[in-house]
Amino acid sequence: MNNRIVDHPVLGQIDQKRKVTFQFDGKTYEGFENDTIASALLAHGIRTLRKHEETGNPRGIYCNIGHCFECRVTVDGEDNVRACLTPIQENMVVESGQVQPHPLDPSKEGVKPRTYAEYKEQEGQK
């Protein structure tokens, strides 16, 4: 069974030629250039990405297009990164299993992108 997402509705086609190495919870994995964190982990059979803020229940990939906030992980020390919208990068360190801060915390307004368009805009400013 192939779990790889090769045509993402927002990010487009995955180039399955160039491999990218990244870490998830201390283990090293490979994905492909333009793979999202979520699709790369799903291809390795990993479905649980974090724990719910209130219940502690496992959470994972749900909508896979950036609407639901279920796939939030910590990337290179930054909390609340949506795994379904974030492309993997060489040597990226992704952590799960933590309760993530609420995605719409008013004290963090404007810091985290809430849509893919905001994400691209912030990336263009870096």
UniProtKB/TrEMBL annotation:
Region (Disordered), start-end ranges: 95-126
Annotated 2Fe-2S ferredoxin-type domain residues: 18-100
Signal peptide range: none
Record keywords: Oxidoreductase
CDD domains, A to Z: fer2
Basic and acidic residues: bias regions: 105-126
InterPro entries registered for this protein in UniProt: 2Fe-2S-bd_N, 2Fe-2S_ferredoxin-like_sf, 2Fe-2S_ferredoxin-type
Name by which UniProt lists this protein: (2Fe-2S)-binding protein
Organism: Oceanobacillus luteolus
Taxonomic lineage: Bacteria, Bacillati, Bacillota, Bacilli, Bacillales
